[in-house]
Amino acid sequence: MSHPQDLSLSEQAALVSSGELDPVELLNATLERIEERDGALRSIPVTFPDASRRMLAEAPPGPLHGVPIGIKDMFRLPWRGPRDGTPREQMPPGESAVFRRLRDAGAVVVGVTNMHFWGGGSTGHVSAYGPVANPWDPDRCGGGSSGGSAAAVGARLVAGAVGVDGGGSIRLPAAYCGITGLKCTYGDVPLQGYTHEFATMDAAGPMCRDAGDARLLGEVLAGDPLPAAVAGGLRVAVVRDPFWADLDPEVERACEEALDASGWTRIELELPGAEHAQIAAVARLTLEAIHTIAPEDLADADPIMRALVKYEKLLPAELLSRADLIRAKLRRSLVAAFERCDAIAWPTVPAPAPPIAAPVVELPSGQHPADAANVRQSGFGNLAGIPGINLPVGLHSSGVPIGLQLQAAWGRDSVLLDAAEHLERATDRAYVDALPPVAGAPA
After folding, report:
1. Are 393 and 254 spatial neighbours (Cβ–Cβ below 8 Å)?
2. pLDDT level of residue 442 (50, 70, 90 thresholds)
3. For 360-384, how does the pLDDT look when each residue is reduced to its tens digit (9 = 90+)?
4. Among 191, 154, 159, 147, which residue's Cα sits nearest to residue 66?
């Protein structure tokens, strides 16, 4: 048998269920792998072996019985309050809804995954635990805000992790780290006991190596089946403006080649209002969260973030109303679009993961902060509440992965997983099975 941590989530679950893999051995191997490989990545900064072993001893039969899972630092656990990437607990210990779903499925929470400070960035380079590094190149960003979950799965520290996506925070780091990340339809995964449970843009979801694993973990998180179907005959829409504009040429080429390989029927579409999605997403994210930042939390932040938050506190509430007008327009556009197509496709990020030391990206138009460029690609889905998925589709000449994003109509998460599995077969799993250097190291 392979090293337990080199097995997929589905393989781990099946082997534990059949008795061929001892779940105690699997948990110990997971903790050892984290200790051996995670130092430079800082993806799982906190483990709790005693609590994990207790959880395993009490685990009921279920689809994830005995399988170790990482959980983003935003959910209450009975033995630990979430910190949101900051030095302080943001909520007291307790049982979040996501914890209960994992527990009831027999899973074992093995550690807390690193994240961008307050969830306020797409790079993961700002955190109380230190920057999240990329398993393909530890000098580059692992992404945010669910960067620790993405890096841990990419590095084969855990086979599955939980992320949350408020402005791209599952899809963006999944693209940077070369994994499959599904942002579920808004409201499908309950967010009680989550630090931003007030948010109208946030949706949780699975972060795994491939679509099959994401389906398994996604069903547990959503509490409903995500039935599989054949996706060879999908109608996939390409929205050129603004989502296919000003891209790194290698990113554009890899995404186009993936769509060509799929054999899907392609439709060119326009989405009225899409040009305003970026600013509306930023306004909504900023203003609905600003009330949660206490003075002592602000004091913990770095100087740039403190200055930004002080500026944001001066923004008028009227901007929320304007953002919601755009949100309504986008939803109407999507209703019309999904009468013509099954999914919408565009690159998940416009450029590869930038260096931690200088988190800016180079585009044909020049140099841009990574956050602004990334939210252009991802904020649309959060405003609309539709499900979205990142699929690994290439490797950039800089040595880090390239991701394609698919989005579907509300409640059609299973269509995205079907599409992802179809594309995996069409590309001979070249990218979902690719190993970053850290994961190719001897066990």
Report:
1. yes
2. very low
3. 999 999 999 999 999 999 999 999 9
4. 159
Return the CATH number at 242.
Answer: 3.90.1300.10
CA–CA dist 37, 207 (Å, integer): 19
Sign of CA dihedral 41, 127, 79, 187: negative
- Tell me, what DSSP letter sits at residue 60? P
Q: CB under 8 Å to 405, separation ≥6 — which residues?
A: 171, 175, 345, 346, 347, 348, 377, 378, 388, 389, 390, 391
Strands (E), 282-370: 343-347, 360-363, 366-369
Residue 76's closest CA among 50, 102, 54, 58?
102
Structural domain total, the chain: 1
Return the active site residues. 72, 145, 169
pLDDT exceeds 80 at position 215: yes
Distances (CA, A) of 74 to 82, 90, 197, 354: 5, 8, 10, 25
Helix (H/G/I), strand (E/B), else coil: 320: helix
Q: Is residue 169 within 8 Å of 390, Cβ to Cβ?
A: no
Asked if residue 40 has pLDDT above 70, the reply is yes
Residue appearing with tokens 């919601």: 324
Q: Quick check: helix, strand or coil at residue 289?
A: helix
**pLDDT tens across 337-346, in order?**
999 999 999 9
CB 43 within 8 A of CB 134: no
Domain of 286 in residue numbering reads as 4-440
The SS3 call for residue 388 is strand
376 sits in which H/E element: helix 370-384
- What does pTM read for this prediction? 0.96
